Amino acid sequence: MTINSRSYRFARSGGASNLVRCNNTMLSPGPREVLIRVSAASLNYRDLLTLQDINSNHEGLIPLSDCAGTIVDVGTEVARWKEGDRVSLNFFPDWHDGACSLAYLQRSLGGGQTNGVLSDFIVAEETSLVEITSHLTLSEAATLPCAGLTAWQALFERGALKAGETVLVQGTGGVALFGLQLAAAQGAQVIVISSSDAKLERARTLGAWQTINYCTQPEWDKVALELTDGKGMDHILELGGPETYDRSIAAIAAGGRIAQIGVLTGFASQPNILPLQFKNASINGICVGSVEHFKRLNDFLSDQQIHPVIDQVFDFDEVPAAYERMKSAVHFGKIVFDLA
Ligand SMILES: NC(=O)c1ccc[n+]([C@@H]2O[C@H](COP(=O)([O-])OP(=O)(O)OC[C@H]3O[C@@H](n4cnc5c(N)ncnc54)[C@H](OP(=O)(O)O)[C@@H]3O)[C@@H](O)[C@H]2O)c1
């Protein structure tokens, strides 16, 4: 079977790269691989960083880590999957279960070292796939592999989040809103900080307990302490980096957990971590998650009937406009591509 596929590829390495459209002929899947018709993909902040990375050598590679689609062909030794199954790919194809390994990072999808998923068709190893829960559309499922799984690992796998605990998430992008939805469903009290009152209003409709505008109230750590009667937050998704870290440390409760996740304000965080010692608080480094984590995330989403927040859907011709929207940070939730 010969299949023609459209994709985007990085035009060049270094400097201000951009993306070019290409046509490819798909190969048949290998014995333990499947061929997937991609219906939807989604954008993460990482994809913006990868496009802008002046040190990368990504020319010719396909961007993006997150997609959802339907299996259209299976290799001769594939037992678990069949044509018609709806699947997502794990961000780390090699991280199936157990502890993370630095070796898994080499093949993370779409990060400028291996091909990603912004393509009509992709071939994937059967062990890297997760079944899509029936209550989600393919567009909704395409938002999960990076942002959803990161919030899940931070709060549930490493954070052991319990009902009644407090959680603070920074901003209203992909990871933050998954953090809000998952934690609220678990019965936690969630504070959302954002630059926009309008976005904070929407966060309340998703279950935010309290909201803080970090532009009009830049000392949001003090506000969070006041709102919790001086106790502080049990969990913080640290997404900002240099401009937010010291406040996260100030706002974390005794015994609390900061999930080290993001670099929204840069890579050179140098927080004073001494207060963590007196608070007996900890920092958990989080890097997306494993296939088994992803399955447990899907089970929770299904049990709680949670639908991811989609900001806007772009079609294949509008990929550059979608990157621009993410760069402008006007989005609320996930930016999705419809490739169907
Ligand atoms: N470690 C991992 O495994 C992992 C996985 C996924 C993502 N990440 C990282 O996590 C971060 C978020 O990723 P994403 O894809 O969710 O991003 P995103 O969807 O682009 O979210 C961006 C939003 O963050 C908020 N923000 C920006 N600066 C802020 C600040 N100083 N304080 C508080 N909020 C701020 C803004 O929300 P408002 O407009 O509401 O202010 C902005 O719209 C990125 O740094 C990304 O690289 C890491």
From TrEMBL:
GO terms, molecular function:
quinone reductase (NADPH) activity
Which residues does the UniProt record annotate as the domain Enoyl reductase (ER)?
14-337
**Cross-referenced CDD domains, in alphabetical order?**
MDR7
Q: Which UniProt keywords apply?
A: Oxidoreductase
Q: What is its EC number?
A: 1.6.5.5
**What SMART domains does this protein map onto?**
PKS_ER
Q: Does the keyword Transmembrane apply?
A: no
Pfam families (UniProt xref): ADH_N (PF08240), ADH_zinc_N (PF00107)
Return the InterPro entries for the record.
ADH-like_C (IPR013149), ADH-like_N (IPR013154), ER (IPR020843), GroES-like_sf (IPR011032), NAD(P)-bd_dom_sf (IPR036291), Zinc_ADH-like (IPR052711)
By what name is this protein known?
NADPH:quinone reductase
Classification from the root reads: Bacteria, Pseudomonadati, Pseudomonadota, Gammaproteobacteria, Methylococcales
